[in-house]
Specification:
By secondary structure, this protein is mostly helical. It folds into 2 domains: about 160 residues, no CATH class; about 220 residues, Cytochrome c oxidase-like, subunit I domain (Cytochrome C Oxidase, Chain A, Up-down Bundle), CATH 1.20.210. The chain contains 13 helices and no strands. Helix 2 runs parallel beside helix 5 and helix 6 runs antiparallel to helix 7. The protein is globular and about 50 Å long. The two termini are about 15 Å apart.
């Protein structure tokens, strides 16, 4: 019997991989002439929305439903309640899918329901366990819901002066800064104990605090005075702090441990993306135009793939070793991000080709992930334990 609904990470990590493939395939089809089927939403807006509130939201739900259970020592979200939550997420994807003709108010209502339900699912456990340290993660869900609401409001003529996708991207940046700042050094330290016993990862210090503050400042400035020189300078300062933070984790020592070094590659895209954003907003240099995809396709997607592949192994009783096809997926996704970010700069006359190549590499990476992890996510733990 399938174990797919035994734990939150199982269905949502699988759905995140499937959504990554489907959303990119639709986007490539539109780029190559497929008729568009949503009157109230432009193709590029749909692409943005489904990558954030479809792909990233699914991965985030899988992570939170699993992590909160581990942090609080309580039973994870499972069985029929988990099935209902999966149905809500699927309903949002169907409502937003081009060509189905779902009216905007209905589509928005279905799509907006998911993140509040995730928040309702995890908040009581955190409060009962007195785990106030992780309550900010609920605030991130509130911010993402607000960003999604702001995304839908213009379709009904309402504008609040805040750009929904910007709020979403900066919220995810802050979340990756916070959570990545915990798991990257922790997992690196664990890996180094077996291969490099004398090596130590720098403990949390003022550089880490400054990097977190810089990510929060990016969000505030982008909302208050977006798109200007101040936002560019703040991004450059954040770039330096995040790069410094990453170096303190000594990622080069994990070069023979793919399941560890992929975390460092993912985090490295944060200073890359922020640096590109800084040079674009400050000096309008063409080299920085790909900054959004430096953060999204680079940092966010790679971190998601890294966490999903590692967490699924650990929570199903398997050794924490990346299979060779998964290592290939890590490299394909990294290459996809690099082509998307730097291809249009290097070959501006070949932009449609570079976009297509990047999309194909992206699909290949997540197709490998789904092929390898669908059996892992849908079967019982190897050690016979629950979960």
């Amino acid at each position: 019997m399938t174990a797919l609904f035994n734990y939150g990470f199982r269905p949502f990590f699988l759905l995140a991989g499937v959504q990554a493939i489907v959303a990119m395939a639709v986007w490539l089809a539109v780029l190559h002439g497929m008729p568009w089927g949503i009157a109230w939403l432009a193709p590029v807006q749909w692409h943005t929305h489904e990558m954030i509130f479809g792909f990233i939201a699914a991965a985030l739900a899988g992570f939170l439903l699993t992590a909160v259970a581990s942090w609080t020592g309580q039973r994870g979200f499972a069985g029929p309640p988990l099935m209902v939550l999966v149905a809500v997420w699927l309903g949002g994807r169907i409502a937003m899918f081009p060509g189905l003709g779902v009216p905007q108010p209905l589509a928005a209502t279905i799509d907006l329901a998911f993140l509040p339900i995730v928040a309702i699912a995890i908040t009581p456990s955190l409060i009962r366990a007195g785990n106030l340290r992780n309550l900010p993660l609920v605030a991130f869900l509130v911010l993402l819901f607000t960003a999604n609401l702001l995304f839908h409001l213009p379709a009904v003529g309402a504008r609040l002066g805040i750009h929904g996708p910007t709020l979403a991207l900066d919220t995810i940046l802050l979340m990756v800064t916070l959570v990545g700042g915990r798991i990257v050094p922790a997992f690196t330290g664990n890996a180094l104990r077996t291969r490099h016993p004398g090596a130590r990862v720098a403990p949390f210090g003022w550089v880490d605090g400054a990097a977190l503050a810089a990510a929060a400042t990016v969000l505030v400035v982008d909302l208050a005075v977006p798109g200007g020189g101040l936002a560019g300078v703040v991004a450059l300062v954040a770039c330096v702090l995040h790069a410094w933070r990453l170096l303190r984790w000594r990622g080069w020592l994990t070069r023979d441990m793919p399941i560890a070094w992929v975390l460092h590659i993912a985090y490295a895209w944060i200073p890359i993306g922020l640096g590109l954003k800084g040079i674009w907003l400050t000096w309008q240099l063409q080299a920085g135009t790909g900054w959004v995809h430096g953060l999204t396709a680079g940092a966010y997607a790679t971190m998601i793939l890294a966490v999903m592949t590692r967490a699924a192994l650990g929570h199903t009783g398997r050794p924490l070793v990346a299979a060779k096809p998964i290592v290939a997926a890590y490299l394909l996704l990294t290459l996809a991000a690099a082509v998307r970010v730097f291809g249009p700069v290097v070959a501006p006359m070949l932009v449609p080709i570079t976009w297509t190549v990047a999309g194909i590499l992206w699909i290949a990476a997540f197709a490998i992930y789904c092929a390898i992890y669908a059996p892992i996510l849908s079967r019982a733990r190897l050690d016979g334990r629950a979960g």
